[in-house]
Amino acid sequence: DGGITQSPKYLFRKEGQNVTLSCEQNLNHDAMYWYRQDPGQGLRLIYYSQIVNDFQKGDIAEGYSVSREKKESFPLTVTSAQKNPTAFYLCASHSPGHNYYGYTFGSGTRLTVV
Amino acid sequence: DQQVKQNSPSLSVQEGRISILNCDYTNSMFDYFLWYKKYPAEGPTFLISISSIKDKNEDGRFTVFLNKSAKHLSLHIVPSQPGDSAVYFCAAQAGGTSYGKLTFGQGTILTVHP
Asked: What is the mean pLDDT of residues A57-63?
């Protein structure tokens, strides 16, 4: 079945550590996105990529980095510069077309700083 | 600046009655709107969408209404079922079905009581 896989589901990070969240899709979608969910704030865009080897900052990119070396993969690194990284992280993908159903989301990664 | 707002953090309705979830937007460039449903610790799933050339779109128990002059849209669920209990996000996009990124509201927690 086609879909988006995020791993791990739960991740614990110590202060000062960098961690990388994985996002893989087999939907052959061109565009991929990373969102962060905090209580009461909805989903906020961190980074997005429309094609391989290209990506743009979203609304809250500070303290995060990404790469897009393959169409299927869009990993997100939460660096030690991110002041408040504890959140639920969602990866999404889509391609434009006649049957536009918006984004397909992964099941998310909950990151906790300990 | 919150371009998409869901001013009701929560809504509680009785099974069988109508649920009405509201969403307001400020960006007049938005021309495509979507509703997503999200369960805890899962990614959002697409529910229904509407283009700005329409004022109503219906899919089974779900109907979305768009009032462009008021920059307001609403999701009606009739009849409401306990399985509808979830967080509902409104999202908006500029540029139709192109690669435009989605802007999300804060979400409304719907609880349907048996």
From this structure: 94
CB contact under 8 A, A96 and B97: yes
pLDDT at B107 over 90: yes
pLDDT at B58 over 80: yes
Interface test with B, best of A23, A51, A100, A109 (most B CBs within 10 A): A100
Q: CB-CB: which of A30, A102, A108 is closest to B46?
A: A102
Strands (E), chain A: 4-7, 10-13, 19-25, 31-37, 43-51, 54-57, 64-66, 76-78, 87-94, 104-105, 109-113
Alpha-carbon distance of B21 to B48, in angstroms, equals 13
